[in-house]
Structure formats: structure tokens, C-alpha cells
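Researcher: We are triaging several targets before committing to wet-lab work. For this one, the compound of interest is zinc ion. I'm pasting the protein sequence and the ligand SMILES. What I need is the predicted three-dimensional arrangement of the protein with the ligand bound, expressed as C-alpha cells, so it can go straight into our comparison scripts without reformatting.
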Amino acid sequence: MSLPSTYTFRWGEGQISGFLSAALGLLGVLAVLCFRFPALLTFPDLHSAYDPEVMRLALGCALLVAMILGLVNFCIGRWRTLGCIGMGATFVAILLGGLGAGATSSFGLGVPIGLDWFILDLLASALLFIPLERLWVLRREQPVLRAEWRLDLQYFALVHLLVSLLIIISSGAVARLFSWSVNAPLQGFISGLPLWVQFPLILVVADLAQYWSHRLMHTVPALWRVHAVHHSSAAMDWLASSRLHLVEVLITRTCVLVPVFVLGFSQLAVLLYVVYIGLHAIFVHANVRFTFGPLRHLLVTPAYHHWHHSDEPAAANTNFAVHLPVIDRLFGTYHHPACWPASYGIGPERLPPGILRQFLYPLTGWWRARRGGERAG
Ligand SMILES: [Zn+2]
Ligand SMILES: [Zn+2]
């Protein structure tokens, strides 16, 4: 049986049990690999955030559920391939050591792969946003797994697996380039402010930095070819938020890190900000119909960011702010009609399919534009 590229889930056909079984079984295999090769596959900054024994218990539950759902799927459904994948993956996880898997190697690459970060964030995001999108759905006709969901999952995996490398590059660049600007009394004053003052302040300075880096990405052709990857999705949902070129991730994180580093916010304020942007960035792309009434004037909402992704000419180059709409009002780029956009994407510009070819698009797109210019000349 060949699997279609979009899935509109219906009860009683075995799709839901099949997908859950396959997803949990495959994530179970990856989790067992994390236990076996922690130095290679886990993100050290995350270690203090979870208890390995609780994770083992969660792994056991996930494998059990994967097996049960695989059996249910096999008995009731037309989607037995998925159930077979789920049960097969569960067997592989058990063969690799299952719940008893311990560290068999201290081999590492120097820069660890964030496989544990990928598993935990994928599970947490899916558990939070899929029900949210079902309960308060904006576009009911859009399937849960719409076209190109596999592509976006690859982007999600890539950024999470390379989390250590991205942090090392961006924080190293900022520390080296801006060490001259460090002012100890100023940093002491900022980090001594109460959290309820630091947090909104961090939103303001980070959004000002992000506003201008984002606006440049829309106006400088070379940067637009990098950012076009994010805008190429023709559908909006929680997973579409992860479609980001690695170069864009690096540029944006570095730009935002500059004021945060120079002003010296406390660790707790930075942690709170990181958690907030992690959730908020996914939320504003989600297929949900929240409008937030008058609060939409204060904070960026899904409707606000959906307009940024709209392919309508009136919405082009508007709503660059990611936290505070007042910044767009200040610089004349605010656009928020009292309705939702009809469609999304980048119009006639076509990106090549596949993550690798999209990763090269800033170069191939530039080459094509240059050849086109030559021919026109
Ligand atoms: Zn944009
Ligand atoms: Zn976006």
C-alpha cells in the first residue's frame, strides 16, 4: 500500500491508531539510542531539565502504547503498514536494550546532537498544538497532516539536532564581536531589576532587533532567498513554523542575542524568554482561530502573523514584529484587517522541492535571477 501525501483522519479506519503507533515506536527507538549514546546524541544544557528515570518510565509507556495501538490497527484498519511500522519499531527498541539500555559508549563529536531535544520538543508540541488546532480550528478543511508535512518535519528535526552547533556559533560570534560593549554597572542594574520588569524589557529589545533583521530579509534580495523558504508554505499550522533555512536561524538568533548579551539580563529572565518564544513562535503559525480581542493591539497573535504570510499584495512587507505590533505601527508596516487572509505563500516564485535543494536555493535562485537578467539584457 502506498501512503498518500496528505491525511484527513477519520475514526474507525485505523489511521489514527496506525500513525500514533508508528510515531511512538520510531520515537522510542530514538530515545533508546539516546540512552545508549548520551555523549553523542543528547544536548547537555537539557540534562538538568529532565530526570532520566522519569524518561525511562515514559519510554516504557510509549513502547507499550505503540505495541497496543499497532495491534489494534492491524485488527481493524486498512492502514496496516503503519501498524507494522509501529510494532516493528517497538521490537527494534527492545532489541537495542529497551528500558534497560545504559550508556555503552562515551564517544562524542565535541558538539553533541540534540536528539533528546528533538524527541521531547516534538512530543510536547504535538501534544499541545494538535488538540488546540482540532478544538479551535480555523480552516476545518485543512488535513491534520497536510501537503509537505514531511518537509516541515525534516526542518524541525534539523534545527533541533543541530541545536548545540547553532548555540555555539551564534553565542560565540556575539561574545567575540560585542565584548567591547559590556558595561558591568549597566548589566548589574538590568539583572537586578524584578523579573516582571526584565521580561517585557527583553521582549522590547529582542523584537526591535528581530524587526530589523526580518525587514532586511524581505528587502535585500540575497536575504529574501534565504527567508523565502519560511514563506513558501501554502498552509499555516504548528509545524509550518519550523520551516526555516539554517542560515536564517543563525542570523535571527545572533541579532536577538546582541541586545540580550549587551544588556546582561538575568539567567531566569533569558530562560523565561526562551520558553515564551519557543511556544509563541509555534502558536502564531497554528491553524487556530483565536483573535484575542483588544489584546491583539498589544501582542502578536495568530491572525497578525498569518497576515505576514499572506500572498495578497496589500499584505506584502508588513507585520515584521514577532512580539509587539506597536513596532510595526511605529515604522509604518502595520497591516491587520478584521478578517483572516484567504491564502498564503510567495505567489509566482517557486521554490524547489526537498530540504537539500531548498537549502541551496539562495545560491541557485541567485544564479537563475542572474541568468534571467543577462537574457533580458
Ligand atoms: Zn517574513
Ligand atoms: Zn512565520
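Researcher: Any quick observations?
Model: Residues 230, 285, 305, 309 surround zinc ion (ligand 2) (CB under 6 Å).
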